Amino acid sequence: MVLVLIETTICERAYAVTPSRIDLGMDTGRSDTATLGWEEWQVPNGTVAAKIFGEVQVMLHPAGAGEVIEGQWYKAALATGASMATDGVAVQSEEGEPATIVLELDGLNPGRHSLVTYHNAVTDGAVGSYSISIDGEKVIQGIKPTLRVPVNEDAESAYLEFETKPGQPVVIRISVESGSKNCVILNGIEIDGSDPKRKARVPTPENGDWHADGDNGQLHLTWKPAASSKKHLVYVASDKDADRAAEKIANAVENSEFLLGSTSDNGYDLTVDPKASQLVYCWRVDSVDSAGKVTRGDVWNFRVRHLAFPGAEGYGRFAIGGRGGRVIKVNNLDDSGPGSLRAAVEAKGPRTVVLDVGGRIILQDRLIIRDPYLTLAGQSAPGKGICISNYNLGLLGANDCILRFLRVRPGDTAGVTLDGMGMASCDNSIVDHCSISWTQDEAFSSRGAKDITLQRTLISEALNVAGHKKYKKGTQHGYAASIGGDIGSFHHNLLAHCAGRNWSLAGGLDKATRHAGRLDIRNNVVYNWSHRTTDGGAREVNFVNNYYKPGASTKVFHVLMAEREAVPSFGPQMYYVDGNVMEGRFDASQELAGVFERHGEPQENWIVKEPFFESYVSTNSAEETFEDVLSDVGCNRPVLDDHDKRVIEETRSGTTTYEGSVTGYPGLPDSQEDVGGWEDYPETHRSADWDTDGDGMPNWWEERQGLNPNSPPNDLTDSNGDANDDGYTNIEEYLQWMATNGHSE
Asked: Which helix H or strand E contains 629, and what residues bound it?
């Protein structure tokens, strides 16, 4: 084996089309320490650890007898994005010998290779320096690990190149050479990549950003240049197939069609088609130094954003949903099995779920959507649509999901405490025109979410004294919603007949134990609460033009109670409040009349005069909101059911029809039976000749649009095409028509 120490990187060719990147970390079982484009290896503590990546076996062990490899991490760095650098594997030595990690690579093809090692200390204490040797020969020394960096790009790295021969593993020893702390850490490795210190990094759009702003047809690509770079070569390719686009750029050379040009700046203007949201753009920036030597850049990708559907607003408005994926039909009301709703939403990959059946789906267990890129189109159902009952339906940790025109009414028959719908830990998702009622826990929750929207949704009659398993018998609950998000948009919703949490601000704490959550709450109507309106806390809250209407059970008359925790280390919780109304109590001109902070802190300490961020919502006054929401809210496609008609009319007239069987409180049921239980949802099916080719669009619609109603089986050319070139696929056009006037034509 011939070893070559490279103190300055000269990468005139790529060692592999795609380097192998391995993110080493503590065996926590967490998913939030994983890094995009890296393989996560959570290494158990022990004397040796080994794992195969592709054709290469990676082995780790300490050099000293009796020593162990152990995981270390610094959780707070997750809050700033240091997913790779926030944790690692370490060896500590109590003896006189330097602490050493031995890294063995077995299975590399014979020939020339490179290796990058990353070193960022995550524990307190002075950090010494490291050396790296191979087969007893020291090749690099004086590596000074960084300490608790906020982002991966700031972590210290070491780079070397070497030749391998058949049957000979590469054995690397990383050792402490100085410092008071006899501990060595390794956060990650990269096999056959470029030197991080000599290549372009930190791209904008961020790698993997599938919601890049190309609205005006231009995207300014930027990157952080290496100190040694004098010029950059910019390569770009696009394709609907992400792998194909990546392969084009990975194999691109200087005379290829994918070279856009060169620049001495750290940016390049790219013309994009804002309607081509299915295209994946892959790009690469190679760095050229003063000697003309080229350091190959990484392959990055992005897609331009597009509205989820016309009328989608707020921070979840660019949810991709199942756009460009397969169409899955629901044709029965079974809990599970082929043709069921469960089978459709639990499927993998981009998918649009079309309902060829209407009626009541009686679930036997929770229905949790964990896989991304889903459009669940309740407006496609015949008859009265569907009602999901007995258990709940919600998103958990999924991104780019679109849920529209669904009813979820769990009730109290399952014997377990159930919520209704939610978007906990989700990103770029939207729930629109849904109806949620009769939950024992909160009807809706979105703790830990990112860019989400809840709009035009009717939350009503959360069960009050209903045997919540976490509370003693007889305790009132009846909670509407606990909401989080960064940023979460909650607009044009109706919350009626829910005793509390109208809303509960559940911003929580981030990984650095600082207040989290940025929420935009506007143009909502709240009616007939009991003891809690909007309370809780988040880092930044816009609370604008909401309409609160007391009812027969209402006991408190504020719209917002900021429960600000008096812990300075948690950071601030601040509010922008404007234009809110409580009928019969105060109007929009008395903007702070219904606001107080339970500790009595002066309002000027925590209420600001300008919004924290744009809402991206068509905003009404509070007075306009009342009628606007009542005229278009809940699952009103195909039709409003009798329950929602009643709740909307009670809100408009300020009345109640029923009372709780336990409490006697007007409008606040303790069981669904207090209000008559589930109404009749007749089982209704589409006819066999409705959609002959099974592409989700009925024959008459395809004929009207000039499409083929008799496409071959599994041919989705028509459904995923874009006949009018507006960025929405043909099946999205059909589903939007069904969401607007389709059921009335």
From this structure: helix 622-631
CA dist., res. 52 & res. 57, Å (int): 4
- The answer on pLDDT for 365 being more than 60 is yes
Give the CATH number of domain 20-191; options: 3.50.50.60, 3.30.565.10, 3.40.350.10, 2.60.120.430: 2.60.120.430
pLDDT tens per residue, range 481-521: 999 999 999 999 999 999 999 999 999 999 999 999 999 99
Region of 510 on the Ramachandran plot (φ > 0 left; ψ -120 to 50 alpha; else beta): beta
Model pLDDT for residues 406-442, shown as the tens digit of each residue: 999 999 999 999 999 999 999 999 999 999 999 998 9
Query: For the chain, which residues make up each domain, given as ranges?
Result: 20-191, 201-304, 326-675, 687-742
Q: In this structure, are residues 685 and 478 in contact, taking their beta carbons and an 8 Å threshold?
A: no
What CATH class has 326-675?
mainly beta
Asked if 669 and 515 count as a contact pair (C-beta separation under 8 A), the reply is no
Question: pLDDT (tens digit, 9 = 90+) per residue, 114-145?
Answer: 999 999 999 988 788 999 998 888 999 999 99
- Name 322's Cβ contacts closer than 8 Å, sequence gap at least 6: 350, 351, 352, 353, 373, 374, 375, 402
Cβ neighbours for 147, distance < 8 A, ≥ 6 positions apart = 120, 121, 127
Domains 20-191 and 326-675 share a fold: no
Query: Binning pLDDT at 50, 70 and 90, where does residue 15 land?
Result: very low
CATH class of 201-304: mainly beta
Q: Which of 76, 69, 74, 75 is nearest to 41 (CA)?
A: 69
Q: What angle, rounded to 10 degrees, do the helices at 642-653 and 622-631 form?
A: 160
Write a three-state SS string for 65-122.
CCCCEEEEECHHHHHHCCCCCCEEEEEECCCCCCCEEEEEEECCCCEEEEEEEEEEEC
